[in-house]
Amino acid sequence: MREKNNDLTQGSIFRGLFLFALPLLGSSLIQQMYNTVDLMFVGNILGKEASAAVGSTSLLTVCIIGFFNGMGTGVGVITSQYFGAKQKQSLTDTIHTAAGLTIVLSAVVIVFGWIACPVLLKWINIPDNIMGLALTYIRIYFLSVFSIVSYNISAGILRALGNSRSPMTYQLIGRIANVFANAFFMCVLKLGIAGAALATLLSQTVAAVLTLRHLCMLNEEYRLKLRKIRIIPSIARRIFIIGIPEAVRSMLITLANLIVQSQINMLGVDSMAAYAAYCKAEGFLYLPQWAVGQANTTFVGQNLGAGKVERVEKSTRTALVMGIGITMAISAVVLIFPHQVFRLFSNEPDIISLGAKIGQMTFGFYFLYAIVEVLSGAIRGAGKSTPPMVVSLINMCGVRLIVLKVALMFIPTVNGIAIVFPITWVTTSLSIALYYKSGRWKNSSVVNHNKIEAVKAEEC
């Protein structure tokens, strides 16, 4: 198979980052579309009880996906560094260890989830009238964990090899399968909420099979071979050291958002609807930042693996300009035409007005979060995922809780909650910038550069 792996250690930095980030942005937009389609099918076909059951389990599903996204990041960082260093044996060992971890971790989570589901749902206060529906959905969802883990880790490997287009394509195929599966299981077979969960299982499996097939058909010696799957303890340890802090960071951000949501819920239905519209509008600003940050993670990993520290610093500066520029351009549209933008998400004048107020108070500062994403991406690409986790813990949870409590004492409205966001973006961006400036992250490469010199000597 002729794969489209890209060596990001040479060529134009801007062009490399931009072309690598585009498919990542496409993947995130596909995920947004997938969530919307699922909600449309469940809400319109099965009714509000089923919709509430699926929505009420979202915390569990987000935590599952967030955890394994973090593990995928750990695998991707190590893979990108070995790929940049041309250390093919270490790259082979990493890919096969990742496959072994996929099997073990997913088996543990599936068994634990299936048994513990009733307790977990009680912990998050699922109402008794939808408990049965929620239990059916989440148990079938847990069966898709192997496919979720396989796709996330395999996609992380392909992206680390410089190929962000194939994972996007496979994800798109999976999402198209999800649309047809939802229609078939719910409309034709009348399986109800079980049909919605089975559609998710099918779509995740399609995407996973395609990514795994791609890894098995690479025409390099590091392609995935089933008979070579094993867990090498030293590599597994490195994956956990990088992956677990990133997984925790993802869940911390979810927790911080839930805390804010709980306060919004106390302000009435209009405020809840306005905040929901704000979150949808915010997605258009966040997704490009995320794509650029992830692209920079791979770029830094490959170049640091190759020992090209100056190119690492240049790529991060380029990514900052790119991320901040895109964010400011989109923010300007919202700030100039706030009511027109929020009218896309609601036709209620009061909700549009509230949503516009939140946007006007926050979007002018949203470029600060681009700094967080890009610098965190660089630090993760170097193999240091603990500092971004600590920064998130201190600022997104600790500082945010304090500011939220104080703000609501003086401004007990949606404006009091809105002001929390720019304040914590300032503290978070300053914290991550100070750590980045210290340069301590540059010495965390997993690569043995003595081997690079040996490879170069052989090539000469």
Automatic annotation (TrEMBL):
One Pfam family here: MatE
Taxonomy, superkingdom: Bacteria
Protein known as: Probable multidrug resistance protein NorM
GO CC annotations, alphabetized: plasma membrane
GO BP, sorted A to Z: monoatomic ion transport
Biological role: Multidrug efflux pump.
KW Transmembrane helix (keyword) present: yes
Database matches in CDD domains: MATE_yoeA_like
Xref: InterPro entries: MATE_fam, MATE_MdtK, MdtK-like
Alphabetical UniProt keywords: Antiport, Cell membrane, Ion transport, Membrane, Transmembrane, Transmembrane helix, Transport
Membrane topology listed for this record: Multi-pass membrane protein
Family statement drawn from the similarity comment of this UniProt entry: Belongs to the multi antimicrobial extrusion (MATE) (TC 2.A.66.1) family.
Transmembrane segments: 12-34, 54-78, 99-124, 130-151, 172-191, 318-338, 358-378, 390-411, 417-436
One annotated GO molecular function: xenobiotic transmembrane transporter activity
Protein localization: Cell membrane
